[in-house]
Amino acid sequence: MRFAAWLGTFLLLALLTLATPPSMATQDDPYAALGRFSDVLDLVEKNYVHEVTRDELVNGAIKGMLEQLDPHSTYMEPEEFQEMQIRTTGEFGGIGIEITLRDGRLTVIAPIEDTPAFEAGLKSGDIILEIDGQSTQGISLLEAVNKIRGPKGSTVSLTLIHQGETKPYTVSIKRATIPIRGAKSNELEPGYLYLRLMSFNENTTKEMRDAISDYTKKNELKGIVLDMRGNPGGLLNQAVAVADTFLSGGNIVYIKGRDEASRENFDARPSAADVAAPMVVLINAGSASASEIVAGALQDRKRALILGERSFGKATVQTIIPLSDGSGIKLTKALYYTPGGRSIQAEGIVPDIVVPFEEPGEAQGNGPVMREKDMRGHIEVGGTDKPRHGQAELTDEVRLRLERDNQLRMALQFVKKLPDMGLIGAGK
């Protein structure tokens, strides 16, 4: 299939360079381009050094046509189209990473938490140089996905290089069944709930709202830390529903194609289940797409304080179009904009408070360490904050997470102070 895709790209390039009489290449003749395509198709089919079928050539040409548009538009053959549908509705065999092509290089957007890729230490921004010893130079995104995914229990070897480093390394990862889990929760301190969103699949909003409901039945909810670090995104309707949980009205996001009439608004609706507790949202470079919709909405509406690192910067909207033979195309049809009219495409969401993640033990090293007082525009709060009663009741999992995660520790400190600062509204 890689050969067919390459050949299709060659075919399209040939179409662009093949000389034709000026009379044929006019805008008034919509069939001129199709004529050139037919000519080249016939030439390749009859004269190429190896025998190729017309289906191979046409499928490769479609792939090349779509993939030269942008990294997210693509053609999927029937098997690929079926696998794509599984990603948001079921389970699949793989290692648990979201990948993209960035500047022609196969790049990890984020590993999914509690998956083999996460446990193997893969990080956002990692560049995948080889898959099972084969170079990823010129590979298509779908081809890479198909090579990395496979039966549960089998292994895949990846040669990677961490962002900012120069020495590659190879790791062998055993594939597992990757569950499509959207949310989980823990209590950080009495009254303060930690919500972790790993993806935006069809169950994410329900799982998140159930966690909030279960907690508030037994506890007073004083604040929420919403963690979307490493969340590669997913379904648009789930992003809207998650944001709607914390907003009582107004715009969440709008999308717009190439003409103004294509604009579509997605607004919050008031509900008795709306959550008005103070919020801090955590993001990083692995927070993409649907994660950025939620963060952008809560930031623009002054509903939450955004903390962490600049997000990934994917603000394109794709539509899935099935074709008659069981194949399909994924086509970029619009850009999305935050309530304030921002397009964060290739820019990302810039946190209100920028806090680089510190690896455990980094503070004992010789490098610079960022503290709150060192941050530009840090907030001065008078008095001291005494330890809350009940801290000893923290589970080992939460205590370890707080000890190892400087961003989460700071988020908890801020969410406790927000009511006194008067900076975050209810998002009405």
Q: What are the salient characteristics of this protein?
A:
2-enoyl-CoA Hydratase, Chain A, domain 1, 5-stranded antiparallel β-sheet, alpha+beta, Pdz3 Domain, 11 helices, 428 residues, 3 domains, 6-stranded mixed β-sheet
SS element count, helices: 11
C-alpha Rg, in Å? Answer: 24 Å
Enumerate the spans where pLDDT stays under 50 for 5 or more consecutive residues: 10-25, 362-393
- Order of strands, widest sheet: 10-11-12-15-16-19
Helix content: 25-40%
Write the layout of secondary structure elements.
Layout: H1 2-17, H2 32-47, H3 54-67, E1 74-76, H4 78-86, E2 91-94, E3 97-102, E4 105-111, H5 116-119, E5 127-131, E6 134-135, H6 141-148, E7 155-161, E8 169-174, E9 176-179, E10 183-189, E11 192-197, H7 204-216, E12 223-227, H8 236-245, E13 250-256, E14 264-268, E15 279-283, H9 290-300, E16 305-308, E17 316-322, E18 328-337, E19 353-354, H10 396-404, H11 406-421
Parallel strand pairs: 11-12, 12-15, 15-16, 16-19
Antiparallel strand pairs: 1-18, 2-9, 3-4, 5-6, 5-7, 7-8, 10-11, 13-14, 13-18, 17-18
Helix pairs in contact: 1-2, 1-3, 7-8, 8-9
Structure description:
This protein is α+β, with helices and mostly antiparallel strands and 428 residues long. The protein has 3 domains: 2-68, no CATH class; 91-179, PDZ domain (Pdz3 Domain, Roll), CATH 2.30.42.10; 183-317 and 333-421, 2-enoyl-CoA Hydratase, Chain A, domain 1 (Alpha-Beta Complex). It is 29% helix and 24% strand. It is built from 11 helices and 19 strands. It has helices spanning 2-17, 32-47, 54-67, 78-86, 116-119, 141-148, 204-216, 236-245, 290-300, 396-404, 406-421, and strands at residues 74-76, 91-94, 97-102, 105-111, 127-131, 134-135, 155-161, 169-174, 176-179, 183-189, 192-197, 223-227, 250-256, 264-268, 279-283, 305-308, 316-322, 328-337, 353-354. It has a 6-stranded mixed sheet with strand order 10-11-12-15-16-19, sandwiched between helices. Helix 1 (2-17) crosses helix 3 (54-67), helix 7 (204-216) runs parallel beside helix 8 (236-245) and helix 8 (236-245) runs parallel beside helix 9 (290-300). The protein starts with a helix and ends in a 7-residue tail after the last helix.
